[in-house]
Amino acid sequence: MKTAAFLGLGAMGVPMAAALARRAAETGGRVLVWNRHADKAQAHAAEYGTQAAALEDVGQAGVIFSCLPTSADVDEVIGQLEGHLNPGTVWVDCTSGHPDAAQSQRARLLTRGVRFLDAPVSGGVSGAVAATLTVMLGGPADEVEAVRGELAFAGKAVHVGDTGAGFAVKAVNNALLAVNLWAAGEGLAALGRGGVDLGAALTVINASSGRSNATENLIPARVLTRDFPPTFGLGLLAKDIAIALDVVGGVRGSAPVLAQVAALTRAAAQMIGPDEDHTALLKLVEQMNAQEIK
């Protein structure tokens, strides 16, 4: 597309839009950026060569990317943009949204001749900076194939099913993140109470069958260091695992472990703080065990 737009310049949106700008510089295109706080869009334009735009001007883009906190936020922006959209535009929503919302958003936008794809991402801020994100695409296969070349921030793009499937996979993926993080925290807290060197314990675990991204990357870099850098909020993790339970309920499935960890994550978001990094989930484990994981 000659003109793309990116809506939402949070921790993920800034580097994702920057990746689009690098591609546009190579192909002679341009990237419009919008954020609720206009100063963020202006700062992005100054640093990355994008163009800060008013929301009503975004409709001139051939492809619109959004990366907002929730599907409700996307609904709000769609409402503000509806009268300014052009038929033939493709809306690619990278929000960690709700599958049901994807269905209604697609139906709503199709009345304007705009195609909607749910396309949440995984890989964190580091993956966004490196443009190696995994994108989970939900929607008709021909529309997914048509947009692949526009995903400048992706290292891998997987078509996982029809509309809403991308959001469903993302929610379950993040629910598994919470499960792995919580379980590892419980185990390490017990080892710590027993006087075990937790760095040494992680060396063993990460060479053995108990390893996960939580033990290999998150806990060593964020928990043992007591750093907890605010990249992905604990409140958003609680939101995502709640969506995963809606997915389970929607197919009349059973997921008692996910349900228990969802309750614990929700409690942690309330007690520790929703804006704390998601790895601060383990601060609740620490409180329950009177043992820091360090």
From TrEMBL:
The keyword Lipoprotein does not apply. The active site is at 170. Keywords: NAD, Oxidoreductase, Signal. Residues 5-159 form the 6-phosphogluconate dehydrogenase NADP-binding domain. InterPro entries: 6-PGluconate_DH-like_C_sf, 6PGD_dom2, 6PGDH_NADP-bd, HIBADH-like_NADP-bd, HIBADH-related, NAD(P)-bd_dom_sf. Pfam families: NAD_binding_11, NAD_binding_2. The keyword Nucleotidyltransferase does not apply. Residues 1-17 form the signal peptide. SUPFAM superfamilies: 6-phosphogluconate dehydrogenase C-terminal domain-like (SSF48179), NAD(P)-binding Rossmann-fold domains (SSF51735). GO terms for molecular function: NAD binding; NADP binding; oxidoreductase activity. Residues 164-284 form the 3-hydroxyisobutyrate dehydrogenase-like NAD-binding domain. PANTHER family: 3-HYDROXYISOBUTYRATE DEHYDROGENASE-LIKE 1, MITOCHONDRIAL-RELATED. This is 3-hydroxyisobutyrate dehydrogenase. It comes from Deinococcus radiopugnans.
